[in-house]
Request: fold
Amino acid sequence: MSSNAVIPDEDGPLFAAAKKVYPQRVKGRFRRIKWALLAFCLGVYYFLPFVRWDRGPALPDQAVLVDFERRRFYFFFIELWPQEVYYLTGLLILAAIVLFLMNAIAGRIWCGYLCPQTVWTDLFFAVERLIEGDRRDRIRLDSQGWSASKIGLKATKHFVWLMIAWWTGGAWVLYFSDAPTLVKDLATFQAPFSAYLWIGILTATTYVFAGHMREQVCLYMCPWPRIQAALTDSDALNVTYKFDRGEPRASVKQAAQLKAAGQPAGDCVECKQCIAVCPTGIDIREGTQLGCIQCGLCIDACDDVMGKLGRPTGLIGYDTLKAVEARACGTPPPALRLIRPRTMLYAAIIAFVGGAMLYQLATRAFLGMSVVHERTPLFTTLKDGSIRNAYTLRIANKRSEERPVAITLDAPMGTTWEVVGAQQTADWRPIVVIPPDSTLDVRLFVTMPQPQARGPSQMIQIKAADLSFGENASVKDNFFAP
Amino acid sequence: MTNPNPTAHEPDFDAVTGQSTTGHSWDGIRELNTPLPRWWLWTFYVTILWSIGYWLVYPAWPLISSHTTGFFGYSSRAELTQEMQALEQRRDIQAAGLKTASLEEIKSSPDLSRVALARGKASFAENCVGCHGQGGTGAPSYPNLTDDDWVWGGSLKDIQTTIQNGIRWTQNADTRMGEMLAFGRQGMLKKDEIEQVVDFVRSLAKLDTAKGANLAAGKTVYDANCAACHGEAGKGNREVGAPDLTDAIWLYGSSREAMIESVHNGRAGIMPAWASRLDPVTIKALTVYVHSLGGGQ
Reply:
């Protein structure tokens, strides 16, 4: 490096003003895919809380519901209790590895098509274009002085943005309470304060992030571009400018002159449409970079231009680094390697974690029991010299019906047992009735006569048998004696 | 490459991007000098403004003898007091059911008994564990409340009466009275008579007796001195708090020495009458709780 380079400030400016991006309207395959995904994602988000799912009279009928008050999470046919929150761990692992797999196959699909930041920003761009016009109109509008029409346009835009943001916040709170009821309460100002607060917070974040922060979120706030850069490889499909075909750049006229002179001319005509349509304002021709969310809109823009010029499309397209480099060296590009150790490993992890979660979910017990042995006292000597131990049983009924459960014991002959407050059948089985979708704590007394009650302890098995569904739960615990 | 002055560096530019670098290099990878976006700086100023808002709204600055209280006079202690009052109110609502219901009704109703057991457990820990121990396990001379041996009766009503009026608590007119005389100390029985009667009582409870013990003589002593309270068969009498002498439970110990000491010095327990300290609802809750410990009859 040149040591006598002159720079005005040795360290350069500490802060940089954000450059406003004016993405231009674009049509094409990837734009259509993006519209479809946008409609699907937002449709799911805004309307899912209104989908109903019958779970019987005792439980809420909202298909997706995070019920903090009753400490339940409902997702269609799945109902999770707080102690099953480990499913969330599994989901997070799956989410991370699916993201890695997507990246290994086709780059930042998440960023370009599915990330909420991208989806809402896209929607806000559409509103902006509708009200203020396309790229040129907007640049002109912003450079103008303030006038009544400019104020009108800007006010309309921000009003529509705020409305969308408000709907976004409104839909969010519907996931935490019965949606139709909450909508009615919100409209009549009967809803709890926290509902209004969260709508306010989500309105603010949506408006600020999608309306004002936009690409700044991707460039400065999001960790994924950094991680992605470290995870990608030369076999992954990325939105790529095929410099082997595009360089050297030349206008149509220059290209004709160069070719006439026997010199090479690339297909890139320097129309800069790829830059104009880019939602993060980057130049894809500089290569895969942090600012590129790989939404494919530059592909549509370039294809459009190439089509008009009668040149083959795909100057910008999904391509691998290996293919571009091979073509640059004049060798045929290698076939796309979807199956490689990296993708196989990710797929294996996904299959393993997903399979384990499915297995766990499918074999999930609807009857649960945990036992705590009474510690004060560990045992009680009764009048006739027999020994009694006390246990607290917590029996969980994860079904939406009330269930009678019989408590039985595997213990030495002569052992008797009773559950406080429970009916006892003729064959010594106390019956406890567990209310629907809840747990019940009951006290169990186990009495062992002498000489069976040998100290210091022996193992007994406490068994709960559900009489209506035939499900069983059993726990081993100690029986203490002097 | 060592740099004699770590704060200064030669201007250095990255070959690929043409951007200046910070001069820092790790494994040959140099850090680009990318300026922070200006809005990031603004968020920093906003946090400072936010902190000023905090000073104004919440208690913040210490003064000589107090502190600034904030615009709305917020105090976490006041908030706690409010929450505790709300809790008390909720408890009163729950306890309202206990007031009118009978002990049997409380025990048989799942809702009422849940409230009563929680309240009783809390009150037991505050008032009773000192003598009866955690969980009512008792100790020598303090009865175990988890077993099926009751000196004064183990029904709900009996337990309630005992808690309310106490035992030998003379300030209470209805207190339970019962006392075992000091047969040896007061000269009513001689030493060998005490040993005889102790051996006889041990034979009733199927405990081992001294070699060659004269059980017939012991029975004569027993019939003359003990049967009045403990009964002919030694089954005890709850009216006077005389324990059953035939079972496996011995409040003052089942060794021969402990029993000789009991007969020599006499025994008498004492328990406060809680009616003067606890409200009737709490006593009801305590009754149901003690009854639930395992011994309830």
Chain A has three domains: 29-230, 237-328, 367-480. The radius of gyration of chain A is 33 Å.
